[in-house]
Amino acid sequence: MTLPLSNIRPDDPGYELVRKRVLELTGIDLNCYKRPQMLRRLDAILSRCHAPNLQALAAELKPGSEVLKEFMERFTINVSECFRDRPRFEQLQREIIPALARRNPALRLWSAGCSYGAEPYSLAIILKEAGLSQARILATDIDPKILEAAKAGESFTANDLRNLSKDVAARYFTPIAGGRFRAADALRPFITFRQQNLLGKPPAEQFDIVLCRNVTIYFTEESKDAVTQHLTSTLRPGGILFIGETETIHRPNRFGLALKSTSFYERAA
Ligand SMILES: C[S@@+](CC[C@H](N)C(=O)[O-])C[C@H]1O[C@@H](n2cnc3c(N)ncnc32)[C@H](O)[C@@H]1O
Known about the structure:
This protein has two domains: 62 residues, no CATH class; 182 residues, Vaccinia Virus protein VP39 (Rossmann fold), CATH 3.40.50. The chain contains nine helices and nine strands. The termini are far apart. The protein is of the alpha/beta class and 269 residues long. It is 38% helix and 17% strand. The model has no long low-confidence stretch (mean pLDDT 94). Helix 1 runs parallel beside helix 3 and helix 2 crosses helix 4. It has a seven-stranded mixed beta sheet. The protein is globular. Bound molecules: S-adenosylmethionine (SAM). S-adenosylmethionine (SAM) binds next to helix 6.
Protein backbone atom coordinates (compact mmCIF):
# COMPACT_ATOMS: atom_id res chain seq x y z
CA MET A 1 0.00 0.00 0.00
CA THR A 2 1.44 3.43 -0.93
CA LEU A 3 0.64 6.09 1.63
CA PRO A 4 0.03 9.67 0.47
CA LEU A 5 2.92 12.08 0.89
CA SER A 6 2.63 14.87 3.44
CA ASN A 7 2.14 18.49 2.36
CA ILE A 8 4.63 19.53 5.03
CA ARG A 9 8.26 19.75 3.87
CA PRO A 10 10.71 17.59 5.85
CA ASP A 11 12.80 20.70 6.66
CA ASP A 12 9.83 22.88 7.73
CA PRO A 13 11.21 25.03 10.61
CA GLY A 14 7.87 24.67 12.45
CA TYR A 15 8.63 20.97 12.99
CA GLU A 16 11.28 21.74 15.59
CA LEU A 17 8.87 24.08 17.44
CA VAL A 18 6.20 21.35 17.54
CA ARG A 19 8.78 18.74 18.57
CA LYS A 20 9.97 20.90 21.52
CA ARG A 21 6.41 21.64 22.73
CA VAL A 22 5.38 17.98 22.48
CA LEU A 23 8.50 16.90 24.38
CA GLU A 24 7.87 19.45 27.16
CA LEU A 25 4.19 18.55 27.49
CA THR A 26 4.20 14.76 27.01
CA GLY A 27 7.79 13.46 27.24
CA ILE A 28 7.40 12.13 23.66
CA ASP A 29 10.40 12.92 21.44
CA LEU A 30 9.31 13.01 17.79
CA ASN A 31 12.94 12.47 16.75
CA CYS A 32 12.54 8.83 17.86
CA TYR A 33 9.80 8.30 15.23
CA LYS A 34 10.16 8.04 11.44
CA ARG A 35 9.92 11.55 9.95
CA PRO A 36 7.64 10.79 6.91
CA GLN A 37 5.01 9.14 9.15
CA MET A 38 5.18 12.01 11.64
CA LEU A 39 4.71 14.56 8.83
CA ARG A 40 1.64 12.72 7.55
CA ARG A 41 0.13 12.65 11.02
CA LEU A 42 0.92 16.35 11.59
CA ASP A 43 -0.74 17.12 8.27
CA ALA A 44 -3.93 15.44 9.48
CA ILE A 45 -3.70 17.29 12.82
CA LEU A 46 -3.28 20.66 11.03
CA SER A 47 -6.45 20.17 9.03
CA ARG A 48 -8.45 18.81 12.03
CA CYS A 49 -7.38 21.79 14.13
CA HIS A 50 -7.76 24.32 11.29
CA ALA A 51 -4.18 25.49 11.94
CA PRO A 52 -2.52 27.19 8.93
CA ASN A 53 0.99 25.86 9.67
CA LEU A 54 3.20 24.11 12.22
CA GLN A 55 4.15 27.40 13.95
CA ALA A 56 0.47 28.09 14.66
CA LEU A 57 0.00 24.51 15.83
CA ALA A 58 2.98 24.77 18.21
CA ALA A 59 1.47 27.94 19.75
CA GLU A 60 -1.77 26.03 20.49
CA LEU A 61 -0.02 23.06 22.12
CA LYS A 62 -0.73 23.86 25.79
CA PRO A 63 -1.58 21.72 28.84
CA GLY A 64 -5.17 20.44 28.51
CA SER A 65 -5.77 22.18 25.13
CA GLU A 66 -7.98 20.64 22.45
CA VAL A 67 -5.03 20.72 20.06
CA LEU A 68 -2.92 18.67 22.50
CA LYS A 69 -5.79 16.16 22.85
CA GLU A 70 -6.10 15.97 19.08
CA PHE A 71 -2.36 15.47 18.79
CA MET A 72 -2.38 12.56 21.28
CA GLU A 73 -5.36 10.96 19.54
CA ARG A 74 -3.72 11.09 16.11
CA PHE A 75 -0.24 10.31 17.33
CA THR A 76 -1.04 7.14 19.26
CA ILE A 77 -2.59 4.57 16.96
CA ASN A 78 -4.64 2.45 19.27
CA VAL A 79 -5.85 -0.36 16.97
CA SER A 80 -5.98 -3.70 18.79
CA GLU A 81 -8.15 -6.78 19.39
CA CYS A 82 -8.25 -9.78 21.72
CA PHE A 83 -5.92 -12.66 20.77
CA ARG A 84 -4.51 -10.52 17.94
CA ASP A 85 -2.60 -12.85 15.60
CA ARG A 86 -4.52 -15.81 16.95
CA PRO A 87 -2.10 -18.65 15.98
CA ARG A 88 0.66 -16.96 18.01
CA PHE A 89 -1.67 -16.34 20.97
CA GLU A 90 -2.70 -20.00 20.85
CA GLN A 91 0.96 -20.99 20.91
CA LEU A 92 1.43 -18.70 23.92
CA GLN A 93 -1.51 -20.40 25.65
CA ARG A 94 -0.69 -23.98 24.64
CA GLU A 95 3.12 -24.09 24.90
CA ILE A 96 4.88 -21.02 26.20
CA ILE A 97 2.89 -20.12 29.31
CA PRO A 98 2.57 -23.77 30.53
CA ALA A 99 6.34 -24.37 30.06
CA LEU A 100 7.29 -21.21 32.00
CA ALA A 101 4.64 -21.85 34.68
CA ARG A 102 6.09 -25.31 35.38
CA ARG A 103 9.23 -23.53 36.62
CA ASN A 104 7.38 -20.77 38.48
CA PRO A 105 3.57 -20.47 38.57
CA ALA A 106 3.78 -16.88 39.89
CA LEU A 107 4.50 -15.65 36.35
CA ARG A 108 5.11 -11.97 35.64
CA LEU A 109 3.97 -10.63 32.26
CA TRP A 110 4.32 -7.15 30.77
CA SER A 111 2.07 -5.86 27.99
CA ALA A 112 4.02 -2.82 26.72
CA GLY A 113 1.84 -0.52 24.57
CA CYS A 114 -1.38 -2.13 25.80
CA SER A 115 -3.77 0.38 24.15
CA TYR A 116 -7.39 0.00 25.44
CA GLY A 117 -6.64 -3.35 27.04
CA ALA A 118 -7.44 -6.10 24.51
CA GLU A 119 -3.92 -7.53 24.93
CA PRO A 120 -3.68 -7.62 28.76
CA TYR A 121 -7.27 -8.89 29.14
CA SER A 122 -6.41 -11.68 26.62
CA LEU A 123 -3.44 -12.60 28.81
CA ALA A 124 -5.66 -12.54 31.90
CA ILE A 125 -8.07 -14.97 30.17
CA ILE A 126 -5.16 -17.38 29.51
CA LEU A 127 -3.94 -17.14 33.12
CA LYS A 128 -7.46 -17.57 34.52
CA GLU A 129 -8.19 -20.57 32.29
CA ALA A 130 -4.87 -22.15 33.33
CA GLY A 131 -5.66 -21.61 37.04
CA LEU A 132 -2.51 -19.48 37.46
CA SER A 133 -4.01 -17.31 40.19
CA GLN A 134 -0.63 -16.04 41.44
CA ALA A 135 0.43 -14.73 38.02
CA ARG A 136 0.29 -10.97 37.34
CA ILE A 137 0.32 -8.66 34.32
CA LEU A 138 1.72 -5.15 34.10
CA ALA A 139 -0.03 -3.24 31.29
CA THR A 140 1.52 0.07 30.19
CA ASP A 141 0.93 2.70 27.53
CA ILE A 142 2.16 6.23 26.88
CA ASP A 143 -1.36 7.60 26.35
CA PRO A 144 -3.14 8.39 29.66
CA LYS A 145 -6.55 8.59 27.98
CA ILE A 146 -6.31 5.13 26.43
CA LEU A 147 -5.08 3.74 29.76
CA GLU A 148 -8.25 5.06 31.44
CA ALA A 149 -10.26 3.13 28.84
CA ALA A 150 -8.13 0.03 29.47
CA LYS A 151 -8.71 0.25 33.23
CA ALA A 152 -12.47 0.59 32.73
CA GLY A 153 -12.36 -2.48 30.43
CA GLU A 154 -15.56 -1.43 28.71
CA SER A 155 -14.38 -0.37 25.24
CA PHE A 156 -14.58 -3.74 23.54
CA THR A 157 -16.62 -4.18 20.37
CA ALA A 158 -17.79 -7.43 18.74
CA ASN A 159 -14.75 -7.13 16.47
CA ASP A 160 -12.44 -7.21 19.48
CA LEU A 161 -13.91 -10.56 20.47
CA ARG A 162 -13.92 -12.18 17.01
CA ASN A 163 -10.88 -14.39 17.78
CA LEU A 164 -12.50 -15.88 20.90
CA SER A 165 -14.70 -18.97 20.91
CA LYS A 166 -18.37 -18.24 21.75
CA ASP A 167 -17.88 -19.94 25.13
CA VAL A 168 -14.85 -17.92 26.13
CA ALA A 169 -16.41 -14.64 24.92
CA ALA A 170 -19.57 -15.35 26.96
CA ARG A 171 -17.55 -16.30 30.06
CA TYR A 172 -15.40 -13.18 30.10
CA PHE A 173 -17.39 -10.39 28.40
CA THR A 174 -20.84 -8.97 29.12
CA PRO A 175 -22.74 -6.86 26.56
CA ILE A 176 -23.33 -3.28 27.74
CA ALA A 177 -24.90 -0.19 26.12
CA GLY A 178 -23.81 1.04 22.68
CA GLY A 179 -22.87 -2.39 21.31
CA ARG A 180 -19.88 -2.55 23.68
CA PHE A 181 -18.69 -5.37 25.92
CA ARG A 182 -17.34 -5.20 29.50
CA ALA A 183 -14.49 -7.45 30.68
CA ALA A 184 -15.35 -9.74 33.62
CA ASP A 185 -14.38 -8.73 37.16
CA ALA A 186 -12.60 -12.09 37.51
CA LEU A 187 -9.92 -10.86 35.07
CA ARG A 188 -9.19 -7.56 36.79
CA PRO A 189 -7.07 -8.69 39.78
CA PHE A 190 -4.48 -10.03 37.33
CA ILE A 191 -3.74 -6.63 35.76
CA THR A 192 -2.05 -3.43 36.97
CA PHE A 193 -2.18 -0.48 34.57
CA ARG A 194 0.54 2.17 34.52
CA GLN A 195 1.55 5.02 32.23
CA GLN A 196 4.99 4.45 30.76
CA ASN A 197 7.01 5.72 27.81
CA LEU A 198 8.94 2.89 26.19
CA LEU A 199 11.58 5.40 25.16
CA GLY A 200 12.15 6.34 28.81
CA LYS A 201 13.35 4.25 31.76
CA PRO A 202 12.35 0.55 31.88
CA PRO A 203 10.27 -0.68 34.84
CA ALA A 204 12.29 -1.98 37.79
CA GLU A 205 10.44 -5.33 37.79
CA GLN A 206 11.66 -8.52 36.07
CA PHE A 207 9.32 -10.47 33.78
CA ASP A 208 8.93 -13.99 32.38
CA ILE A 209 7.13 -12.73 29.26
CA VAL A 210 7.21 -9.28 27.68
CA LEU A 211 4.81 -8.40 24.88
CA CYS A 212 5.63 -5.40 22.70
CA ARG A 213 3.48 -5.80 19.63
CA ASN A 214 2.63 -3.28 16.93
CA VAL A 215 4.08 -0.43 18.98
CA THR A 216 7.50 0.30 17.46
CA ILE A 217 6.49 0.16 13.79
CA TYR A 218 6.88 3.95 13.44
CA PHE A 219 10.06 4.19 15.54
CA THR A 220 13.42 4.92 13.87
CA GLU A 221 15.77 1.91 13.69
CA GLU A 222 17.90 3.46 16.45
CA SER A 223 14.89 3.87 18.77
CA LYS A 224 13.69 0.35 17.99
CA ASP A 225 17.07 -1.00 19.07
CA ALA A 226 16.97 1.09 22.25
CA VAL A 227 13.49 -0.30 23.04
CA THR A 228 14.57 -3.90 22.36
CA GLN A 229 17.51 -3.38 24.72
CA HIS A 230 15.20 -1.87 27.32
CA LEU A 231 12.64 -4.71 27.03
CA THR A 232 15.31 -7.42 27.15
CA SER A 233 16.83 -5.90 30.29
CA THR A 234 13.55 -6.59 32.11
CA LEU A 235 13.39 -10.27 31.02
CA ARG A 236 14.48 -13.03 33.34
CA PRO A 237 16.96 -15.52 31.83
CA GLY A 238 14.91 -17.94 29.69
CA GLY A 239 12.14 -15.31 29.47
CA ILE A 240 10.24 -14.62 26.24
CA LEU A 241 9.82 -11.45 24.17
CA PHE A 242 6.65 -11.63 22.05
CA ILE A 243 6.50 -9.17 19.12
CA GLY A 244 3.95 -8.35 16.38
CA GLU A 245 3.13 -10.38 13.31
CA THR A 246 4.79 -7.94 10.86
CA GLU A 247 7.84 -7.25 13.03
CA THR A 248 11.31 -8.83 13.27
CA ILE A 249 14.39 -8.20 15.39
CA HIS A 250 17.51 -8.04 13.23
CA ARG A 251 20.48 -9.92 14.63
CA PRO A 252 18.74 -10.69 17.95
CA ASN A 253 21.98 -12.00 19.46
CA ARG A 254 23.06 -8.31 19.81
CA PHE A 255 20.54 -8.17 22.65
CA GLY A 256 21.20 -11.62 24.10
CA LEU A 257 18.05 -12.95 22.40
CA ALA A 258 17.53 -16.02 20.20
CA LEU A 259 14.60 -16.57 17.83
CA LYS A 260 12.50 -19.38 19.33
CA SER A 261 9.74 -19.41 16.70
CA THR A 262 7.90 -16.78 14.64
CA SER A 263 7.29 -13.70 16.85
CA PHE A 264 8.89 -15.27 19.97
CA TYR A 265 12.45 -14.53 21.14
CA GLU A 266 14.08 -16.14 24.17
CA ARG A 267 16.53 -14.40 26.48
CA ALA A 268 19.71 -16.43 26.98
CA ALA A 269 19.52 -18.45 30.22
C1 LIG B 1 -1.38 -0.25 17.70
S1 LIG B 1 -1.44 -0.19 19.45
C2 LIG B 1 -0.92 -1.84 19.85
C3 LIG B 1 -1.78 -2.49 20.93
C4 LIG B 1 -1.42 -3.96 21.22
N1 LIG B 1 -0.05 -4.09 21.66
C5 LIG B 1 -1.68 -4.83 20.01
O1 LIG B 1 -0.74 -5.30 19.37
O2 LIG B 1 -2.86 -5.04 19.68
C6 LIG B 1 0.03 0.77 19.80
C7 LIG B 1 0.04 1.39 21.20
O3 LIG B 1 1.39 1.81 21.49
C8 LIG B 1 1.33 2.99 22.27
N2 LIG B 1 2.62 3.71 22.16
C9 LIG B 1 3.10 4.43 21.10
N3 LIG B 1 4.31 4.95 21.41
C10 LIG B 1 4.60 4.54 22.67
C11 LIG B 1 5.69 4.76 23.56
N4 LIG B 1 6.74 5.50 23.20
N5 LIG B 1 5.65 4.19 24.79
C12 LIG B 1 4.58 3.43 25.17
N6 LIG B 1 3.51 3.20 24.40
C13 LIG B 1 3.51 3.75 23.16
C14 LIG B 1 0.14 3.75 21.67
O4 LIG B 1 -0.38 4.69 22.60
C15 LIG B 1 -0.84 2.61 21.33
O5 LIG B 1 -1.80 2.43 22.35
